[in-house]
Input
Amino acid sequence: MSDEYFYGVTLSSSHQSETWDPEAKAEYPRSNKLLIRQALLGPDAKPDELNVVQVETMCLQDSIKIPVAILKVGETRQARLDIEFPDAPVTFTLIQGSGPVHLIGQHLLGALVEEFEDMEEMEEEMLDEEEGDDSQFKEDENKRKGAGKRKTNEDEDDDEGEPKGKKSKMSNNAKGKATSPKKNAKK
Output
Protein backbone atom coordinates (compact mmCIF):
# COMPACT_ATOMS: atom_id res chain seq x y z
CA MET A 1 0.00 0.00 0.00
CA SER A 2 1.22 3.50 -0.75
CA ASP A 3 0.48 6.75 1.04
CA GLU A 4 0.92 10.47 0.54
CA TYR A 5 0.97 12.92 3.43
CA PHE A 6 1.11 16.67 3.69
CA TYR A 7 4.42 17.86 5.09
CA GLY A 8 4.83 21.22 6.75
CA VAL A 9 7.25 22.79 9.18
CA THR A 10 7.64 26.30 10.59
CA LEU A 11 11.10 27.68 11.29
CA SER A 12 11.46 30.68 13.59
CA SER A 13 13.83 32.18 16.16
CA SER A 14 12.41 29.79 18.77
CA HIS A 15 12.50 26.73 16.45
CA GLN A 16 15.43 27.26 14.05
CA SER A 17 15.97 23.70 12.86
CA GLU A 18 13.88 20.67 11.86
CA THR A 19 15.09 17.26 10.66
CA TRP A 20 13.03 15.00 8.43
CA ASP A 21 14.07 11.41 9.07
CA PRO A 22 11.15 8.99 8.78
CA GLU A 23 13.50 6.01 8.44
CA ALA A 24 14.50 6.50 12.08
CA LYS A 25 10.88 5.81 13.07
CA ALA A 26 9.46 2.27 13.04
CA GLU A 27 6.10 3.55 11.76
CA TYR A 28 7.56 4.22 8.27
CA PRO A 29 9.27 0.97 7.23
CA ARG A 30 8.72 1.58 3.50
CA SER A 31 10.66 3.77 1.10
CA ASN A 32 10.27 7.52 1.66
CA LYS A 33 10.63 10.64 -0.40
CA LEU A 34 10.19 14.27 0.63
CA LEU A 35 9.04 16.95 -1.80
CA ILE A 36 9.30 20.57 -0.69
CA ARG A 37 7.07 22.67 -2.90
CA GLN A 38 7.13 26.12 -1.36
CA ALA A 39 8.64 28.36 1.30
CA LEU A 40 6.38 31.08 2.69
CA LEU A 41 7.23 34.00 4.93
CA GLY A 42 4.74 34.31 7.77
CA PRO A 43 2.70 37.48 8.37
CA ASP A 44 4.58 38.19 11.62
CA ALA A 45 7.95 38.51 9.87
CA LYS A 46 9.93 41.66 10.57
CA PRO A 47 10.28 44.24 7.77
CA ASP A 48 13.75 44.68 6.21
CA GLU A 49 14.98 41.35 7.63
CA LEU A 50 16.37 38.65 5.38
CA ASN A 51 15.21 35.15 6.28
CA VAL A 52 17.50 32.46 4.87
CA VAL A 53 16.56 28.77 4.92
CA GLN A 54 19.38 26.27 4.50
CA VAL A 55 19.07 22.56 3.81
CA GLU A 56 21.54 19.87 4.83
CA THR A 57 21.32 16.49 3.15
CA MET A 58 23.46 13.74 1.70
CA CYS A 59 24.80 13.88 -1.82
CA LEU A 60 26.86 11.10 -3.41
CA GLN A 61 29.49 10.73 -0.69
CA ASP A 62 29.30 13.76 1.59
CA SER A 63 26.69 15.90 3.21
CA ILE A 64 25.92 19.24 1.64
CA LYS A 65 24.65 22.47 3.20
CA ILE A 66 23.11 25.01 0.85
CA PRO A 67 20.59 27.87 1.10
CA VAL A 68 17.33 27.09 -0.71
CA ALA A 69 15.23 30.19 0.05
CA ILE A 70 15.89 33.84 0.85
CA LEU A 71 12.75 35.72 1.85
CA LYS A 72 12.13 39.36 2.82
CA VAL A 73 8.98 41.30 3.71
CA GLY A 74 8.04 43.67 0.89
CA GLU A 75 10.20 41.87 -1.66
CA THR A 76 9.84 38.10 -1.62
CA ARG A 77 7.24 36.57 0.67
CA GLN A 78 7.23 33.18 -1.03
CA ALA A 79 9.49 30.98 -3.13
CA ARG A 80 8.46 28.02 -5.25
CA LEU A 81 11.07 25.37 -4.62
CA ASP A 82 10.01 21.96 -6.02
CA ILE A 83 12.95 20.16 -4.42
CA GLU A 84 12.98 16.38 -4.03
CA PHE A 85 14.82 14.57 -1.27
CA PRO A 86 14.90 10.82 -1.93
CA ASP A 87 17.11 10.06 1.06
CA ALA A 88 16.77 10.88 4.74
CA PRO A 89 17.83 12.64 6.86
CA VAL A 90 17.16 16.18 5.64
CA THR A 91 17.67 19.11 8.00
CA PHE A 92 16.12 22.53 7.40
CA THR A 93 17.63 25.44 9.34
CA LEU A 94 16.77 29.12 9.54
CA ILE A 95 20.35 30.46 9.39
CA GLN A 96 19.41 34.14 9.22
CA GLY A 97 16.35 36.09 10.33
CA SER A 98 13.70 35.35 12.90
CA GLY A 99 10.95 34.05 10.59
CA PRO A 100 8.49 32.59 10.73
CA VAL A 101 9.18 30.67 7.51
CA HIS A 102 6.77 27.88 6.56
CA LEU A 103 7.99 25.01 4.38
CA ILE A 104 5.23 23.09 2.60
CA GLY A 105 5.44 19.84 0.70
CA GLN A 106 4.57 16.16 0.48
CA HIS A 107 5.86 13.04 2.19
CA LEU A 108 5.55 10.05 -0.16
CA LEU A 109 5.65 6.51 1.17
CA GLY A 110 6.18 3.17 -0.55
CA ALA A 111 4.98 2.48 -4.07
CA LEU A 112 3.57 5.99 -4.33
CA VAL A 113 7.12 7.22 -4.92
CA GLU A 114 7.23 5.29 -8.22
CA GLU A 115 3.69 6.34 -9.11
CA PHE A 116 4.62 9.99 -8.49
CA GLU A 117 7.68 9.67 -10.74
CA ASP A 118 5.52 8.11 -13.47
CA MET A 119 3.03 10.97 -13.04
CA GLU A 120 5.86 13.53 -13.45
CA GLU A 121 7.00 11.79 -16.64
CA MET A 122 3.44 11.88 -17.98
CA GLU A 123 3.19 15.60 -17.19
CA GLU A 124 6.45 16.25 -19.04
CA GLU A 125 5.20 14.25 -22.05
CA MET A 126 1.94 16.19 -22.02
CA LEU A 127 3.85 19.49 -21.95
CA ASP A 128 6.01 18.30 -24.86
CA GLU A 129 2.88 17.29 -26.78
CA GLU A 130 1.26 20.66 -26.07
CA GLU A 131 4.37 22.42 -27.35
CA GLY A 132 4.23 20.17 -30.41
CA ASP A 133 0.53 20.98 -30.85
CA ASP A 134 1.34 24.70 -30.67
CA SER A 135 4.00 24.38 -33.35
CA GLN A 136 1.64 22.24 -35.47
CA PHE A 137 -1.02 24.95 -35.07
CA LYS A 138 1.47 27.59 -36.21
CA GLU A 139 2.46 25.46 -39.22
CA ASP A 140 -1.20 24.95 -40.16
CA GLU A 141 -1.84 28.68 -39.77
CA ASN A 142 1.15 29.51 -41.99
CA LYS A 143 -0.08 27.04 -44.60
CA ARG A 144 -3.51 28.70 -44.56
CA LYS A 145 -1.92 32.14 -44.92
CA GLY A 146 0.30 30.84 -47.71
CA ALA A 147 -2.71 29.29 -49.49
CA GLY A 148 -4.45 32.66 -49.42
CA LYS A 149 -1.43 34.30 -51.01
CA ARG A 150 -1.23 31.65 -53.70
CA LYS A 151 -4.83 32.29 -54.69
CA THR A 152 -4.11 35.96 -55.31
CA ASN A 153 -1.06 35.04 -57.40
CA GLU A 154 -3.09 32.56 -59.43
CA ASP A 155 -5.77 35.20 -59.98
CA GLU A 156 -3.09 37.54 -61.33
CA ASP A 157 -1.72 34.75 -63.51
CA ASP A 158 -5.17 34.07 -64.96
CA ASP A 159 -5.50 37.72 -65.94
CA GLU A 160 -2.26 37.64 -67.89
CA GLY A 161 -2.85 34.35 -69.64
CA GLU A 162 -0.43 31.66 -68.62
CA PRO A 163 0.65 31.26 -65.02
CA LYS A 164 4.14 32.42 -64.13
CA GLY A 165 6.71 29.91 -62.97
CA LYS A 166 4.58 26.91 -63.96
CA LYS A 167 5.04 24.46 -66.81
CA SER A 168 2.73 25.12 -69.69
CA LYS A 169 -0.29 22.86 -69.86
CA MET A 170 -0.85 20.47 -72.67
CA SER A 171 -3.66 21.51 -74.98
CA ASN A 172 -5.57 19.67 -77.63
CA ASN A 173 -5.14 20.69 -81.23
CA ALA A 174 -7.97 20.68 -83.75
CA LYS A 175 -7.50 16.98 -84.54
CA GLY A 176 -7.86 16.00 -80.86
CA LYS A 177 -4.21 15.19 -80.31
CA ALA A 178 -2.20 16.73 -77.53
CA THR A 179 0.65 18.94 -78.54
CA SER A 180 3.89 18.86 -76.64
CA PRO A 181 4.78 21.72 -74.27
CA LYS A 182 7.79 22.55 -76.49
CA LYS A 183 5.55 23.26 -79.49
CA ASN A 184 3.32 25.51 -77.36
CA ALA A 185 6.36 27.41 -76.14
CA LYS A 186 7.56 28.07 -79.76
CA LYS A 187 4.28 29.59 -80.87
Notes: The chain has two helices and eight strands. The mean pLDDT is 75.
